[in-house]
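Exercise (ungraded).
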Amino acid sequence: MSLALDLALCALILGVSLAAVAGAGVFRAVIFFITYGLFVAIGWARLGAYDVALAEAAIGAGLTGVLLLTAQGRLRRVQADRTERPGAPLPAALAGGAVTLALAWAWFVLPVPEAPDVAQALPQSGAGNPVTAVLLNFRAWDTLLESIVLLAALLGVWMLARDADWDAPLGPRYHARPSGVLAYFGRVLPPIGLIFGVYLVWAGTETVGGAFQGGTVLAGVVLVAMMAQVLPPPRASKRLLRAALVLGPGVFLLSGLAAAALGGSFLSLSAALAKPAILIIEAALTVSIAVTLALLVIGPAEAPEPAP
Amino acid sequence: MTLWLHLLALGLLATLAGALWRVWRGPSQADRMMAAQLVGTGGVGVLIVLAALQDWALLVVALALALLSALAAVGFVKTQTPDGAGDPEEQSARDGGRYAPAASQKDAAT
């Protein structure tokens, strides 16, 4: 019976991904991509990778949806969404098929790497969730670089602003009817999301959750509040905003250097200090991830559109 | 019990397939968006059934989905206003209720 369930899920994932790339129309492709994220999240849940399922649900079904829909709306407003289909799809399909075949070949041929057992080292790591232990202790270097990559991505988006607009607030000037449904939603959702996001970070050291997932939920909350005109759009020149952006990577780097100064090596956590250190780093990372992701979706600074 | 839960999850997946048909057919953008929201709600249901089947920790994933899948609807509503940043309700109040949002027009791209 569970095989039937898995087969149905696989068929749905394949069907949705085919529909997203094969159908005509940008809007339809965007909607199929949103549902694709959702089905993939269920797929990860089925495979037992709950942390990945959580990240996919929050990013794929939540933030990416807003990002793509906003992009599609903007294309439609400048009437650029009716362009010809780009080139022949055949080479892209062939390339994609070749990559799939190569991955399948690697899956069957390559030996399973002899990884050290995470469960054995877990008690010294300061985290009960093996994913958190790997992310923030055993492979902290990767996580540190990823948090910096996120910051670099935001700087790249900000550079798209025109020079004259640099001091303007970030993103479009969202507005809503003050007593309307959207404004109400913008006031009801944030408190719930705030509690849930903080819970994900706090619980993430022991069970499903983590800084990235919690930060994504908080970013969604910030986005809803901004779109409902409950929060004003920030300016890139604000010091507090910039401090929030570098808080996570900064605390991470400092704790790594402190470990080196205390006699260990860079980014090593001693077993006694590991748990509080991980919690502090995760809390700082969450703030930075939430602000960075929300600002990535909002986009670069732009002067208000002239009234039509 | 496990058999029933599997059947339930399969049934929920089948309803999602129905919603996908609506995403494909449209015809208006609002139809597609509402179908995507239905997939979100159904996905929460599937995850809750999977939580009962596999591990209650999965409830957290269902919660995250329930909280964030509404975000796409907000983004969609924004794009249906002339400047891409407004609120159809605001428009309708200004135009005395005669405002027809772009969502009710046929999706011209298909």
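Further reading is listed at the end of the chapter. For now, observe: Residues 1-73 of chain B form one domain. Chain B has a mean pLDDT of 81.
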